[in-house]
Amino acid sequence: MMIPGPPPGIYAGDGAAGSDQRSFNAPDLPPTAPPGGETVVTVVTYADFAGALRDALRDFHSADLLARNPLLRGGIGNLGRFAGPLDLKALLSETVGTLFGNPRDEKLRRVIELTYFQPAPKQEVVADRLSLSFGTYRRHLTTGRDRLARWLWESSRVAPIQSELPSAGWPTAKGEKPEDATAPSPEAGEPAPPRLSVVILPFTNLSNDPEQEYFADSITEDLTTDLSRITGSFVIARSTAFTYKGKSVDTRQIGRELGVRYVIEGSVRRSDREVRVNVQLIDAETGAHLWAERLDRDLGDLFSIQNEITGRIARALQFELAIADTRRLTEHPDALDYILRGRALAWWKPISRENNAEGLSLFKRALALDPRAIEAQIGLASMLVSRVFDFWSDAPDVDLQDADQLIARALAVSPNSAWAHYAKGQVLRAQSQYDDAAIEYETAITLDRNLANAYAWLGRCKLAIGSVDEVIPLVEYAIRLSPHDRNLAAWCWQVGAVHLLKARADEAVRWLEKARSAYAGYHYIHASLAAGYALRGETKRASAALGEARRLSNRYASIAGLKAAPGRQLLEAPRLGALAEATYFAGLRKAGLPEE
Predict the structure, then answer these.
(1) 240-270 pLDDT, tens per residue?
(2) Sign of torsion, CA 424 426 430 436?
């Protein structure tokens, strides 16, 4: 049985008013036609579908129970109405292997496989075998099961359920058609392509070695998966996109044939020591080039290079697609307009009190027009938490409570939204619940492996709970994904802080100076620099840095006052206390900070 790539369109909830995206909670599957020709209407809600899937997983080793599962009566994915228990078992096991095939989803795959596909061990035994706390194990189990349910639900909704088992391939999606079908003309009354609808054409292999074709294809496949996870995106399946491989077809024709607004094309050239990837974003209506990027990398760990390239491209395209889509809006502002403008302030504009206040206003106006807009709920929650982190809030507890309620609403409708889980992690981190925040960031990463902020703040949580050795790889990966991020100063500080705690003063100062260059308004950067300079014997520079920290904050009057100040991640974790005393506080004392 063939289990191909992701369904052509992945939708993450209700979204903004006026968008073309469908809700996962739409009530009905398409009716099926039995062999006799009479119509039998199958009404299946998502809740029923998810319940049937849970039962199928639970009854995986019981053929008699599995045979009575509703999924076999209505058809699911590329199973027909005449499939049996063995077909359903094969579909479930192979889909899990494909859906969680990325190394970063390894935990989810192992949790699902050991819980359901192995001979029924107790859940406590599975958690112990995976070296997970039982609470963490249960969260991974729920996340993995929900993602599997929504994946299969969407694939079943993409096209009518087949009346017989297909030989291979993925169900045909709206906008896709057999090779012998003719392209619709605009005059035929075809609906407008969905917002953020895109096809990633197979990247061209420009290497002299034809055996390198697989590398270009894998870049294409990874981008297809990554862009499918963008909220509100409609991404044409790999199986259809690859029918254009090696063909010279006008991008406007491709847009008409597939019903998409954007086309992404690119090329890969590998030499003995280097790989170069070019990528372009094209408006399928006009043929205009909207954005282009070239990435050159030295060959080393090929898998890591491929992950970095696709991550960087996917993150950039997420931003450029939003910009391109904004240009299509009408002159009259609506909820979507406010969301896109607020998102730009929330994620890409410089951090400032003014930008935060404007972002709050934009997301509130979006919710006034569409109270169900998930992106507005997530955006508003994120801005409220940012206001707390940056000490601009007049009522931090109220802001965090409001943010938590907004995220609860978003997750209730869209439990697989990476940004919703990320925002939940932000709320928990602001409440100093670092272990729970780390779980939310990890969940966000499993849903969107290119969410740079989640990697970085997961690193902050690891620092706060004392898992020092795990911090730097996470933060450095975030910086590789988003090297010009507006949070770069805080991220560089985290790396510098770990080097400082490990008594690597030279590396600490190098990273802390990077942090200061990115943004000089954080007192803790200057305080850490003061300690680093002092440990290197640079007394004058240490004194100057301490003076700047004192100018920015009143917490540096004494060592005792600093230890009593809020937000002391370097102090509260037992494993950090001894390290901080020997490095951070020792350096501050040398820089001139008194004990009392």
Answers:
(1) 788 888 888 888 888 888 888 889 898 888 7
(2) positive
Rounded CA-CA distance 454/312 in Å is 15
Question: First CA to last CA across the chain, in angstroms?
Answer: 72
Alpha helix ranges (H) inside 209-301 = 213-228, 238-241, 251-258
CA distances (Å), 250 to each of 201, 234, 255, 291, in order? 12, 20, 9, 18
Of 27-31, 71-75, 265-269, 585-589, which one has max mean pLDDT?
Answer: 585-589
Share above pLDDT 70 across residues of the chain, in percent, rounded to a whole number:
73
DSSP state of 163: S
Smallest Cα–Cα separation from 529: which of 595, 591, 472?
591
Q: Which residues of 539-549 are buried (b: 16+ CB within 10 A; e: fewer)?
A: eebbbbbbebb
Q: Please say whether the beta carbons of 43 and 27 come within 8 A.
A: yes
Give pLDDT tens digits for 151-167: 776 655 543 323 222 22
In the DSSP assignment, the letter for residue 117 is I
CA 596 from chain centre, in angstroms, equals 46
DSSP label at residue 113: I
Three-state secondary structure string covering 292-338? EEEEEEECCCHHHHHHHHHHHHHHHHHHHHHHHHHCCCCCCCCHHHH
